[in-house]
Design a protein that fits this description.
By secondary structure, this protein is of the alpha+beta class. It is built from 5 helices and 5 strands. The mean pLDDT is about 85.
Length: about 140
């Protein structure tokens, strides 16, 4: 299967910057990235033509909807962040604001699995996350 250049570039960035997918076969990674792009659940940053940040996310009804690999997006009030990584100063904050503008601001809760916690989910209220990104940790 052939993939668009954007998908190939984003997948290459993801492979370099997220250890969670480094052992995945190339086709699996490309298909995974393509799902988010096809469903308009992708935000990316470029500088000088290079990808420097990527956010992949879904809107679900509950934490259980985010688990597994069926990639449902129910349009629910929980934003599940599958991946968010940036490699330049301010990239993460910029990606956060891009995702907020893409609908996360309508959610009650933000959820993501944390590699450093053995894949355990971290859940935050949207208000808590807004305070942390806009005003520092409080």
């Amino acid at each position: 299967m052939s993939f668009p250049n954007t998908t190939v570039r984003v997948a290459a960035f993801v492979r370099r910057n997220w250890k969670g997918c480094r052992r995945w076969p190339r086709q699996l990674l490309l298909s995974w990235v393509q799902w988010f792009i096809d469903h308009d659940r992708f935000q990316g940053l470029t500088e000088g033509g290079r990808v420097v940040g990527v956010a992949l996310y879904r809107f679900v009804d509950c934490e259980d909807d985010a688990r597994g690999y069926d990639y449902k997006d129910t349009g629910g009030k929980m934003a599940f962040i599958a991946l968010c990584t940036g490699k330049t100063e301010g990239a993460m904050q910029h990606l956060y604001h891009m995702v907020m503008g893409a609908g996360m601001n309508l959610c009650d809760t933000i959820c993501w699995a944390r590699d450093k916690h053995g894949g355990r989910a971290s859940l935050y209220s949207i208000n808590t996350l807004n305070r942390r990104f806009n005003y520092g940790k409080r």
